[in-house]
Amino acid sequence: MPFDIVIRGGRVVDGTGSPWRLEDVGIRKGKIAKLGRVGRVESANSINASGKYVAPGFIDIHTHSDIGILIEPTAECAVRQGVTTHVIGNCGDSPAPISEEYRELAVRRFEYYAQAQDWKWSTYREYLDFTAAQGVGINIAGLVGHGSVRLATMGFEERPPHPEELRAMKAHVDEAMRAGAYGMSTGLVYPPGCFAATEEIVELARVVARRRGFYASHIRGERETIVDAVRECIDIGEQAGCPVQISHNNPKYGGIGKAPEIQALWEAARARGVDVLADNDVHTDFGPPLSHALPQWTQKLPTHELLALLRDPAKREALKAEVQADKRPGAGYVGLLVHERFDRIWLLRCPAVPSKEGKTIAQLAKDRGVDPWTAYFDTIVEERDGAVGLFDYMDPEEIKSTLRHPLAMICSDGWVAPKEERTSPTAPYQPCTYGEFPGVIERYVVNEEVLSLKEAIRKMTGLPAWRLGLADRGLIRPGFWADLVVFDLPRVRDRATNLWPHKYPFENYPHGYPEGIEWVLVNGVVAVADGQPTGTLAGRVLRRTEAS
Q1: Angle at CA 447, nearest 5°, toward 59 and 50?
Q2: pLDDT at residue 400 tops 90
């Protein structure tokens, strides 16, 4: 029987960490049917991979494409960098469950990632069914977000759940797991997840464990308290009896230098039988709204209430004191405020007064003759909460240390973005969305030799597939789905990333598509041909079952 497609003469890096070997790959009915020499008459459609590398399609274990995949189902920014699977629902945020009581707040929480649509679903199964019915260009595997479960049950209440509320939360998690979620995520620096005690999360993780899922966490502190936060995360999994995935677990400003301590915790946990793995992206900066670095409770406020709060001098001082006290640690980039490193916070978006763009908060404060805190708060007010910053809050050497560790896999922490955003002057800053995986290959495999190619590919394919329990993806094996990428190693370039120090205006802004990623197949269908996307919707909404 002839093959549908044959990839000929490529250096096959199979995702196990083994060295490449020269083989043809025969594909039939969406799956890999043969590895080895394939005769010329056995397929009319062939891809010449001579001198190129053939790898499993990259699996991005940590993304926020939950709504982006609905707006841009072809996922062009993913497939063009060789990514064939996104894991969504991270950091405690998933688009379901949603309750009618808190629907408006739930939708507002996703406006940062993509413009909210008319959401008609309520349960997790309804969301997955809606996504599958629309069609997707890459495979989608979902986590249910603890923050979404808590919000659907009790809004932004800063208290433990009542017994009936905890039962409702367990029911939401169980519904999601039965619908096909691969596990549950938490975002313990974000509201409302940050209001939850350890015991609450353990109870919900036990539901996940019964359904054979895993627990993924944006932990409760990424800076000064990172060691205790990693310890808490592992303890939750250990008590609940489920595997642990520690999200983007690289120390941020205020915790830099602590990588050896947290890696020792991973290793000690595995030594006593706890299944712990971690993931990490490789960007040193992040571009959130300035207001997102304020105390978590302020994020529930409508814009007019937030601005009224910031116009009150006494309340400004109280907010400043609360940030500096850091009793409830915020996201990693908040460390720049805690340590008053305003020289490392650039103004990326100031729609009302664009002349501020490209300056640091420290520069703006000097120009105005005010202290940096005043400049920071004033900018939020002047821009009516439309100001976006660029926070330089991580250390490249720490990132390399994390990448080298055999328990760490590679993620982007990005999301599927609409094609028109790439050239829009108001597009979010998201180089990870366009170039994360080619960037790792270019910088950390070819240029700096932090990783070997075979190990980098394992961290992008076989290891995340193993975490997900995918028995037929993530490796190049007969019988596996043909999620594949063909790339020209010397030509691989990340065209989306600006390295420090940043230059303004930011080149490519930074949404350039990568080079050297020549062919991508999703479930045996060509999604990228000779470097150009085909627009196919060959992806699938993957659903975990207890038998997975």
Answers
A1: 65
A2: yes
Give the N- to C-terminal CA distance of the chain in Å, as an integer. Answer: 30
Supply the pTM of this predicted model.
0.95
Separation between Cα atoms, residue 102 and residue 326, nearest integer Å: 28
Q: Which helix (H) or strand (E) holds 66?
A: none
d(Cα 365, Cα 375) in Å, to the nearest integer? Answer: 5
Looking up tokens 């005769």, which residue turns up? 39
For residue 476, how far is the Cα from the chain centroid? 24
Q: Among residues 358, 392, 426, which one ends one of the domains?
A: 392
Torsion angle of the four alpha carbons 128, 238, 464, 61, in this order, in degrees rounded to the nearest 10: 50
- Tell whether 270 and 333 lie within a shared domain: no
| 515 close to 491: Cβ distance less than 8 angstroms | yes
Please give the torsion angle defined by the CA atoms of residues 172, 192, 276 and 523, in that order, rounded to the nearest 10 degrees: 60
383 CB neighbour count, 10 Å cutoff: 21
| Overall domain count for the chain | 2
Residue 131 CB contacts under 8 Å (≥ 6 apart), including other chains: 69, 70, 140, 541
Contact by Cβ (8 Å): 120, 174: no
In the predicted model, what is the mean pLDDT of the chain? 93
C-alpha 381: how far from chain center: 30
Q: pLDDT for 404-450, tens place per residue?
A: 999 999 999 999 988 887 777 677 778 899 999 999 999 999 999 99
Amino acid code (one letter) for 478: P
Distance CA 80, CA 14 (A): 20
Q: How far is CA 503 from CA 83, 253, 336, 509, in A?
A: 29, 21, 20, 11
CA 139 to chain centre: 15
Same domain, 383 and 442: no
- CA-CA distances (angstroms) from residue 385 to 54, 232, 301, 426, 504? 46, 34, 11, 14, 22
Taking the C-alpha atoms of 39, 42, 48 and 52 in order, what is their torsion angle to the nearest 10 degrees? -60
Residue 42 lies in a domain: no
Amino acid making up residue 469 = G
Peptide bond into 354 cis (omega under 30): no
Q: How many CB atoms lie within 10 A of CB 132?
A: 16
Which domain covers residue 130, as residue numbers? 58-284+394-484
